[in-house]
């Protein structure tokens, strides 16, 4: 039995995704940790992601004019990263490195096709001419001559694995419609060439391979919608130069009149494979979907429709699928269990997996009906020639999948219900305290509400949505359309709550919220309910929206100081002009504070911030400067209140905003005074802390002397600080 679990977005793709993958995704490779993956785009950039947090840990780019030409991989033995750009230039670096121009560089004598990294065998380099070298041998003499193993052949695919203590590399080539398989053991200088048996009117589209009992099992996805298996012995007895490999049919990708046009696939275990492709029934439009098949019983176990389309690439690591879906990189976890006939037809009584469907027309089952689980929140089960109906007997679907089926069946049943009935049923569903996959079910409810909003522009259950977001632990990936609809309707309070509660908001959405908040007038915000807990303690509100001046003591800038040292006069003037008057009203300040709390990556947010209108950028900088001065007034540099921004958040956003708009702000007359005051205030603080650092040693010595004293002895001492 196999099942697809809830999916989530790892990152955005394309120019609007803000992830630096505007040229498209070249490859995805495992990172140094099981929870890490390395993304390589088709341009200049490689990014390390932590999958569970959906956030980047590092991003590296080669110079403009250079292009990464094969996937970046991790050396699992040294925790270094290896990239090849412009076909021949090898780069090796560590996590702490930032500038790839300053890392190890080696120019090779031949073009590289791919670098494979083995967890227990180190990296192996495959050249376009078919030559293979381990990385350590290659680095001993980077300009060593690389032999050409293939002639007039083009490498289509390659893979590497360990057999005992020896790395084994296998790759497939094509020439004039013929396909060849090469098997190399670089440490033993062993090379064997095979010719793949031709298939009439079809050709291989994708390959994968693994080793079992001294035999390479090569699986090939052909254009005739079938998977074939080829066995290649690692210990070759024959001395023939070229041996023809015969293949056997493993799986036919068709079910009940529907045919899956596969583009890529992955082996999950000995009985299950995943195939990404387009499923088409006669007379119907094809739909892209991700499927899991049982090769032992020739059944389609589960399927997920992908309405936004894919690139045709599928990666599988640590029981997770990775693939592009529209303009995002999607991650879906899966689960495979022991293969049995009961599991293959969806009748395994002790199954704990809720989202399993079977789409196979089992004629041998007589009149028994097949149990079909509802696939997803928006997709409908595949249509077969003979319609399948849900059981109505005692052994109902609820016995196998008691809550998940009821949730999804309920959503389908309520699709055409009236608004009152629709909301009443959903409220009852949300109020349930216990159910499997509770978060996923709540996400399904939010998605159902949003879908109805899209279908009926006059319908917008704002209070219901707020109730769900405020009382349930949701995330952006569980209901990605929620914030988009809130942005469209300019529901700033819902956006504020989402920014404060969702841990995985993409940078593009964060920027969109910031732009909306800055664009709203103070008058319009007066009529909107906004949570002011983050500002009420440091912005005192009067009738005319003026601040009440409070007695504060700055860090090093007390009004009682008479000395003109360290630019105190400048600091006082800066304090007087910036602190007394907040540039925005309390409602807008609270909304901007929610943006400051949102997690982000500087690399991916900066391109969006550059699109912020200049006047809005200046206003935002004025507010950040106001917060910065307010924080500096406090001994512990912490603003009072709930959800108030920290000094680090304020400084990071100030730096980010200046990086994005510095040239524009220098040219704007209204920004000149702001930049000058900011410069003076920062300079004064730097000088103040510099003076504190000078007496740090004396203060430590004083503390040490106090510890040495006898607490029972009374004395008066004079210590001179030099």
UniProtKB/TrEMBL annotation:
Report which superkingdom the organism of origin falls in: Eukaryota
Where does this protein reside within or beyond the cell? Nucleus, Nucleolus
Tell me the gene name: Nol11
Is the keyword Oxidoreductase assigned to this protein? no
What the entry lists under SUPFAM superfamilies is as follows: WD40 repeat-like
The record ties this protein, via InterPro entries, to: NOL11 (IPR042859), Nol11_C (IPR048897), NOL11_N (IPR012584), WD40_repeat_dom_sf (IPR036322)
Q: GO cellular component terms?
A: nucleolus
Query: Domain Nucleolar protein 11 C-terminal, which positions?
Result: 409-721
Q: Which residues form the Nucleolar protein 11 N-terminal domain?
A: 1-335
* UniProt protein name: NOL11 protein
- Keywords, alphabetical: Activator, Nucleus, rRNA processing, Transcription, Transcription regulation
Q: What GO terms in the biological process aspect are recorded for it?
A: maturation of SSU-rRNA
- Where does it primarily localize? nucleus
- Please provide, alphabetically and separated by semicolons, the GO molecular function terms listed in this UniProt record: RNA binding
């Amino acid at each position: 039995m196999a099942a697809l679990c809830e999916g989530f977005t790892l990152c955005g793709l394309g120019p609007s995704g803000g992830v630096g993958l505007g040229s498209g995704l070249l490859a995805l490779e495992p990172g140094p940790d099981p929870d890490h993956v390395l993304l390589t785009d088709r341009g200049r950039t490689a990014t390390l992601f932590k999958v569970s947090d959906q956030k980047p840990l590092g991003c590296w780019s080669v110079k403009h004019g250079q292009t990464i030409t094969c996937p970046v991989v991790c050396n699992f033995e040294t925790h270094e990263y290896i990239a090849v750009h412009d076909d021949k230039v090898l780069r090796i670096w560590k996590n702490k490195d930032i500038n790839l121009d300053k890392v190890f560089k080696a120019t090779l004598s031949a073009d590289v096709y791919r670098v494979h990294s083995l967890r227990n065998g180190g990296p192996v380099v495959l050249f376009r001419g078919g030559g293979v070298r381990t990385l350590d041998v290659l680095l001993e003499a980077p300009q060593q001559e690389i032999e050409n193993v293939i002639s007039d052949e083009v490498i289509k695919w390659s893979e590497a694995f360990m057999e005992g203590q020896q790395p084994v590399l296998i790759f497939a080539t094509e020439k004039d419609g013929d396909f060849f398989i090469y098997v190399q053991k670089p440490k033993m200088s062993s090379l064997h060439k095979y010719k793949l048996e031709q298939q009439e009117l079809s050709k291989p589209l994708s390959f994968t391979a693994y080793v079992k009992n001294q035999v390479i099992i090569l699986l090939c996805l052909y254009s005739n919608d079938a998977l074939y298996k080829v066995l290649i012995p690692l210990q070759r007895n024959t001395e023939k130069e070229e041996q023809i490999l015969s293949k056997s049919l493993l799986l036919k990708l068709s079910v009940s009149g529907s045919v899956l046009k596969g583009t890529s696939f992955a082996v999950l275990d000995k009985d299950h494979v995943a195939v990404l492709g387009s499923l088409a029934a006669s007379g119907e439009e094809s739909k892209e979907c991700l499927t899991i098949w049982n090769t032992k019983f020739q059944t389609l176990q589960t399927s997920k429709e992908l309405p936004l389309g894919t690139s045709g690439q599928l990666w599988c690591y640590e029981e997770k699928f990775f693939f592009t879906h529209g303009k995002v990189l999607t991650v879906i976890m899966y689960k495979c269990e022991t293969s049995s006939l009961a599991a293959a037809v969806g009748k395994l009584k002790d199954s704990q997996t809720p989202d399993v469907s079977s789409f196979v027309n089992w004629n041998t089952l007589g009149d028994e009906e097949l149990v079909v689980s509802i696939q997803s929140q928006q997709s409908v089960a595949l249509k077969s020639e003979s319609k399948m109906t849900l059981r109505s007997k005692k052994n109902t679907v609820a016995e196998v999948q008691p809550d998940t089926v009821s949730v999804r069946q309920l959503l389908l049943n309520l699709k055409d219900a009236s608004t009152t009935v629709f909301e009443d049923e959903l409220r009852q569903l949300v109020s349930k305290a216990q159910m499997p996959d509770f978060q996923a079910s709540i996400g399904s409810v939010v998605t159902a509400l949003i879908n109805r909003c899209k279908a009926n522009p006059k319908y917008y259950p704002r209070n219901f949505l707020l109730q769900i977001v405020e009382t349930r632990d949701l995330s952006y990936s569980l209901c990605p359309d929620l914030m988009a609809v809130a942005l469209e309707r300019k529901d700033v309070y819902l956006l504020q709550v989402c920014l404060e509660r969702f841990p995985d908001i993409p940078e593009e959405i964060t920027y969109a919220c910031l732009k909306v908040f800055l664009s709203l007038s103070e008058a319009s915000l007066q009529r909107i309910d906004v949570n002011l807990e983050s500002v009420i303690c440091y912005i005192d509100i009067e009738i005319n929206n003026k601040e009440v001046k409070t007695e504060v003591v700055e860090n090093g800038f007390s009004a009682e100081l008479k000395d003109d040292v360290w630019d105190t006069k400048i600091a006082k003037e800066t304090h007087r002009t910036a602190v007394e008057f907040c540039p925005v009203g309390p409602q807008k300040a609270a909304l901007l504070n929610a943006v400051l709390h949102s997690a982000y990556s500087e690399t991916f947010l900066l391109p969006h911030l550059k699109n912020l209108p200049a006047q809005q950028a200046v206003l935002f900088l004025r507010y950040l400067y106001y917060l910065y001065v307010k924080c500096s007034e406090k001994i512990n540099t912490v603003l009072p209140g709930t959800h108030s921004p920290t000094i680090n958040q304020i400084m990071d956003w100030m730096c980010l905003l200046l990086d994005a708009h510095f040239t524009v702000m220098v040219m704007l007359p209204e920004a000149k005074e702001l930049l000058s005051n900011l410069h003076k205030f920062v300079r004064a603080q730097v000088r103040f802390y510099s003076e504190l650092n000078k007496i740090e040693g004396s203060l430590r010595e004083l503390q040490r002397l106090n510890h040495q004293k006898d607490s029972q002895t009374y004395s008066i001492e004079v210590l001179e600080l030099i």
